């Protein structure tokens, strides 16, 4: 009985907070640093650039900002080359230089070699990587007993291990120049778990924890010119979650929480970069959802997750 009373009280509290969120759209981005981040002329590195958010972000940078040098990294050679050609076409009027580096970044030795090549290439021009976007990710969509240990390890390599490797390789130059930004494309599922997403939720949670710890540690130094931005979207229509939430029983979930359009996510990320925001949750109405539901009793918490499709949403997954 006590848990039920606590659930009602917590739910009412959550509704009050939600009303405040709806009344205050300015909470989007959870704060900003002073000033703007000028993307013109930046040396940009984007992982997972062969499709989805990575490809569209490269396209947006090439078409909207002048004189950038964009390094695109992806393991799919064909998709990467196709994306490179599209970005080059978009960047002709802005004089954007585009380089493609095919690489399976889960092989850390290969990833480190590619990053060193990029550092060397930029260094020869007297530049440094000043915008790092860690975006690569994958999902298997299997139950824990069907998921192999090697697949789980691969997800961790693609997540926090590769992110930390990129920090080791690029962050020192940013700190030396007191100029740069690290963008972590995470997931709302790092805070709101889902069934058949064990490896994905774990990897994204590690990525977010690493990002926050790095921001805190770097913030202790006098290098206030280096900024960290985390992006936590709900499911995005990139193809990775194709087929998810299609069960007839999840019709309400699809109405309440439709997949986010990739182009709209990218537009929001660009705004967040320029405005030097600290964190973006998409859709913004869910900004406080992970923290509100955490104060609920577990049965109520899991009911809320089920409403969002966390229990059954992946049963119909087809993927890319």
UniProtKB/TrEMBL annotation:
PROSITE patterns: ADH_SHORT (PS00061)
UniProtKB keywords: Oxidoreductase, Signal
Keyword Lyase applies: no
SUPFAM superfamilies: NAD(P)-binding Rossmann-fold domains (SSF51735)
Molecular function (Gene Ontology), one example: oxidoreductase activity, acting on the CH-OH group of donors, NAD or NADP as acceptor
InterPro entries: NAD(P)-bd_dom_sf, Sc_DH/Rdtase_CS, SDR_fam
The protein's name: Uncharacterized protein
Lineage start: Eukaryota, Sar, Stramenopiles, Bigyra, Labyrinthulomycetes
């Amino acid at each position: 009985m006590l848990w039920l009373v606590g659930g009602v009280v917590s739910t009412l509290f959550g509704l009050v907070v939600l009303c405040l969120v709806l009344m205050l759209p300015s909470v989007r981005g959870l704060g900003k640093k002073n000033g703007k981040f000028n993307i013109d002329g930046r040396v940009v590195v984007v992982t997972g650039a062969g499709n989805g958010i990575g490809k569209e972000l490269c396209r947006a940078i090439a078409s909207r900002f002048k004189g950038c040098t964009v390094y695109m990294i992806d393991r799919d050679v064909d998709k990467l080359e196709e994306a490179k050609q599209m970005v080059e076409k978009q960047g002709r009027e802005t004089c954007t230089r585009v380089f493609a580096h095919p690489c399976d970044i889960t092989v850390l030795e290969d990833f480190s070699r590619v990053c060193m090549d990029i550092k060397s290439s930029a260094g020869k021009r007297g530049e440094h990587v000043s915008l790092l976007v860690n975006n690569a990710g994958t999902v298997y969509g299997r139950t824990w007993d069907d998921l192999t240990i090697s697949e789980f390890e691969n997800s961790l390599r693609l997540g926090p291990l590769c992110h930390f490797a990129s920090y080791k390789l690029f962050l020192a130059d940013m700190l030396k120049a007191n100029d740069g930004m690290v963008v972590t494309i995470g997931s709302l599922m790092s805070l709101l778990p889902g069934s058949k997403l064990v490896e994905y939720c774990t990897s994204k949670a590690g990525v977010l924890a690493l990002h926050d710890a790095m921001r805190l540690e770097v913030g202790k130094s006098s290098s206030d010119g280096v900024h960290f931005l985390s992006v936590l979207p709900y499911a995005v229509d990139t193809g990775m979650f194709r087929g998810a939430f299609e069960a007839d029983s999840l019709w309400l979930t699809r109405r309440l929480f439709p997949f986010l359009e990739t182009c709209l996510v990218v537009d929001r990320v660009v705004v967040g970069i320029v405005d030097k925001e600290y964190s973006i949750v998409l859709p913004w109405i869910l900004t406080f959802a992970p923290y509100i539901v955490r104060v609920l009793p577990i049965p109520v918490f899991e009911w809320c997750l089920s409403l969002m499709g966390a229990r059954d949403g992946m049963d119909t997954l087809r993927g890319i």
